[in-house]
Amino acid sequence: MLKKFLPNEHVETVLEITPIYLKDKGIKGVITDLDNTLVAWDQPEATPEIKEWFETLEQEGIHVTIMSNNSEDRVAKFSEPLDITFISKARKPLGKAFQKAQEEMGLRDDEIAVVGDQLLTDVLGGNRSGLNTILVVPVVQTDGFFTRFNRMVERRIFNYFRKKGMLHWED
Ligand SMILES: [Mg+2]
After folding, report:
1. 63 CA distance to ligand 1 middle (Å)
2. What is the 86 CA–ligand 1 centroid distance (Å)?
């Protein structure tokens, strides 16, 4: 059952997720989390590196949607200047928002990667929807109020995986 929390891939930062990296895995669409995945949870705007990352993906024809459980205000202010499709108040790990993003992309399950920093929302949600999952190391070690409890649970899941020898990276 805990296997639903295990990501397919693990990277240090989204910047490692290049068009070549994705094409190699047959991925044509990316559903990415915002807080602590793209920028720190309390940083309102994209950094120049993240702007360039989006531009590169789009140039290579990769579909991108920003999907966050955070408020419309937060997610719109971040996404609109970048001209990137977004879904706020997504209620990850529930499947509805993933389904909506997938329908808009018009891609198969195996052609989509869900990218995020949390096992309990991003990875669990992506896995349950049958999509590829890529876990990233959180941009900063602090979290918004509602994420702190999730992190406690997450640490226990990591410990379990570590004991079972299922972790292939150091956290
Ligand atoms: Mg996050």
Report:
1. 20
2. 14
Give the type of residue at 115. Answer: V
Task: Quote the ligand 1 centre to 160 CA distance (angstroms).
Answer: 22
First to last CA, the chain: 22
Residue 171 has what pLDDT? 52
Question: 148 C-alpha vs ligand 1 centroid, how far in Å?
Answer: 11
In order of their start, the domains of the chain are 2-163 (3.40.50.1000)
Reported as a single tens digit per residue, the pLDDT across 68-77 is 999 999 999 9
Q: What is the residue-wise DSSP string for 68-112?
A: -SS-HHHHHHHHGGGT-EEE-S--TTSSHHHHHHHHHHT--GGGE
- Residue ranges of the chain whose pLDDT lies below 50: none
Quick one: pLDDT at residue 155?
A: 93
What pLDDT shows up at residue 109? 98
Residue 93 preceded by cis peptide, ω within 30: yes
Q: How far is the CA of 41 from the centre of ligand 1 (A)?
A: 7
In the prediction, which pLDDT does 2 show? 87
Q: Ligand 1 mean position to 83 CA, how many Å?
A: 20
Between the CA of 68 and the centroid of ligand 1 the distance, in Å, is 7
